[in-house]
What we know:
Helix content: 55-70%
Amino acid sequence: MFKTPLSVNLRIALSLLITFPTASSASDLDEAKNVLSKTNTAAATSQQRIDTSAQQSIQLSAEIEQLQQEVDNLQVYQGHLNALVESQTLEMASLEGQLDQINATRQGVVPLMYKMIEALKLHVEQDIPLNPTARQQRIARLDDMMPRADISDAEKYRRILEAYQIELEYGVKLGLYQGQILAGDQHLEVDVLHLGRLSLVARSLNGQNYWSWDTNNKEWQPLDLSMKTEIDKAYSIASQQIAPSMITLPLSLVSNSKIVSNTEQGQ
């Protein structure tokens, strides 16, 4: 059998090993490639995650900044609301104090109004019978008004003062109205003329009879027809048929007295 020298065999084996890699080396190379591919894929995925996280971080930072701005605005608004509430609290305390004062004032004003109405009734009863029906009706309306809830206390007080004002005007004007008088035992429809409260005269509707109020005796007394001209003149002035001028009228304060008045001043 032919035998090759050992050195030749060794070179041939090494050459074969270099020329033809072993199956084990090829498998390791494939595994290394797979690992490298997976590593690249993982690195790309990680980078994508990093990019996404960075973008989210930027977005969150912007949102935080916006929220911080809103918090700052809310703090300013909260301070404004606190000041507003404090002001409203002080205003409410002031209003409560005013309401207490109003209630205290009302407690004093309401009795005063009742006293004023009673004083007005007494005045009309004791006064000369000057337009008594209208005055009594006015007082009756005031009585009906007082318990009504739909009329304010201010309006009630105003109407009472208005009634007092009318009573005051009765005392300074030359006035004329139609009404009834009790002459003797007869109720007569007449035209009544008054010059303030100084003179109160009645004339029959046909203009033929005259009466004057006698305060001393509290009754209507017939007048002498000698004063007819002057009295008719006063009636014409009161009804604005002639211009105001000097007139002479019987004085109602004292029986059988007369008063001379310049109606230009009296009106």
